[in-house]
Design a protein that fits this description.
Length: 445
């Protein structure tokens, strides 16, 4: 019998297990992958952007729940980045900041996984890798519900625990372990979920961008939903054959995805020369009257992009500037400053860094991360209906919500330590030690 069973060995699950084990609880992690923290290794291009000192819950996070800012405030507190920095330090990881983003001092995501797995070993957490969970059920419901244990059936084992933490993440990046299977467990337990959507992903445009695929530009972008401006981003825009990509687009994708699922019209307006106003660009174009308009534009933007914008404006690229009418020059500048494209979809989960939607926040108590209607079940991380923009916000939520869930589940175990001593000693060794040694000796692979 374990005090705490954590399903999912990602950022949230490992944080939960460490926090629970530090309270003295007897903890097990069930992870379906063949190693822990697989997604964590890939974060921040291998550098692991852990957190961010710029924090504004309303702007950095999204949820279907209207009260999500209060929820986040309860879970993350006033200074989430410092919560992360302290937690990392407690595991022997120093951090550094760049433009608000917090990274491990090593600039290696692997150092975070290494430190976390060493903590798991230090506190004697059992890990079962390649865990194939068949069912999750309550052993017995006493009248008060207080002493019911949770029984997790694996293909070859049965794990019993006093508390359960669900930290199964999202369905993005199947190649890094994302899947539906965690959601199936959540549904089986009767927990309400909001609709799932890919987020932090590219846009599919309602237009063919083959001619400009591969072009990158420093730009600003406005997102319109049914003609109302909903969001603004600036940064490097990457144009692909199917549409738009880059961090600035990823950051608009949660709002766009929700709007499209509600069958609303989504448009993006791009300014390819956000450093200059229209009057300046017009002067610039008119000073080179004998050159072709494409040649002049190439002093401002990528030549392929220039040709594409001129085609859109119905202007021959070889036309000398002096032969263009005022209306044509205005049309060119409008294309540069207000390039508007309709978005018909988002790229799928395999190209989405996170999954939006998930366990409804109303199901959870943010002070403990407990699922209110289930006495001893907690949840944390991306499995919840919270998604953040790029910049360390998703890991911040995963790690701090996991830590909170672990501390709460651990506190519960402390309360019932008496029961444990009486009823369950030895169960741990009998049931799970074999699986552990066979499948996951030295967890870090
Ligand atoms: C390429 C990439 C780069 C990213 N970079 C950053 C970044 O720099 N900063 C940032 O803040 N965020 C980043 N993110 C997002 C961030 O990685 C996730 O939001 C975060 O890892 C979520 O943590 P989690 O523990 O909730 O989920 P996960 O890390 O996905 O972990 C969930 C775990 O549960 C396991 N699991 C699922 N179902 C079951 C089951 N049925 N049984 C047993 N185990 C199960 C999975 O195998 C997985 O190991 C990035 C994401 C990607 C894909």
């Amino acid at each position: 019998m374990y005090d705490v069973c954590v399903i999912g060995g990602g950022a949230a699950g490992m944080s939960a297990a460490i926090a629970a084990a530090r309270t003295g609880s007897n903890v097990i992690i069930l992870e379906k992958n063949n190693k822990l923290g697989r997604k964590l290794y890939a974060t921040g291009n291998g550098r692991c952007n852990l957190s961010n000192t710029y924090m504004n819950f309303q702007k950095m996070y999204f949820s279907c729940d209207a009260h999500y800012e209060e929820f986040l405030s309860g879970v993350l507190g006033d200074t989430p980045a410092y919560g992360i920095i302290e937690f990392m330090k407690s595991m022997g990881i120093l951090t550094h900041g760049r433009n608000g983003c917090i990274y491990p001092m090593s600039n290696q995501a692997s150092s975070v996984v290494w430190a976390m797995t060493d903590q798991l070993k230090k506190y004697g957490v059992t890990v079962i890798l390649k865990a194939d969970i068949q069912s999750v059920a309550f052993e017995k419901q006493t009248e008060s519900g207080k002493n019911s244990n949770i029984v997790i059936k694996l293909d070859k084992d049965v794990v019993k625990a006093k508390s359960l933490i669900i930290a199964t993440g999202g369905k993005s990046y199947a190649s890094l372990g994302g899947s539906d299977s965690g959601y199936n467990i959540i549904k089986e337990l009767g927990v309400k979920m909001s609709e799932l959507r890919p987020a932090l992903c590219p846009f599919i445009a309602n237009e063919d961008f083959n001619d400009i695929a591969g072009v990158r530009a420093n730009a600003s972008a406005w997102l319109f939903v049914d003609d109302t401006q909903e969001a603004f981003e600036t940064g490097e825009l990457q144009i692909t054959d199917y549409g738009l990509s880059g961090i600035m687009i990823f950051n608009l994708s949660s709002i766009a995805g929700r709007a499209m699922s509600e069958e609303k019209r989504v448009m993006v307006r791009i300014d390819f020369l956000d450093k200059y106003d229209k009057a300046y660009i017009e002067d610039f174009i008119r000073t080179e009257e004998k050159r072709t308009i494409l040649g002049v534009l190439n002093g401002l933007i990528n030549d392929r992009l220039g040709g594409f914008l001129l085609k859109r404006a119905g202007i021959d690229t070889r036309t000398p500037v002096k032969e263009l009418s005022d209306a044509q020059i205005k049309a060119v500048i409008d294309e540069i400053k207000s390039f508007t494209v309709e978005i018909k979809g988002l790229k799928d989960y395999e190209q989405a860094q996170v999954t939006a939607g998930g366990i409804a926040l109303s199901e959870l108590d943010e002070n403990t991360m407990r699922i209110k209607k289930l006495e001893h079940v907690y949840a944390a991380g991306e499995a919840l209906d919270i998604d953040g923009i790029c910049g360390g916000y998703n890991l911040t939520f995963a790690i701090l919500s996991g830590k909170r869930a672990g501390e709460s589940a651990g506190a519960r175990a402390e309360e019932s330590a008496g029961d444990r001593m009486e009823g369950c000693a030895g169960a741990r060794t009998e049931e799970c030690v074999g699986a552990r040694t066979e499948e996951c000796a030295g967890y870090r692979t």
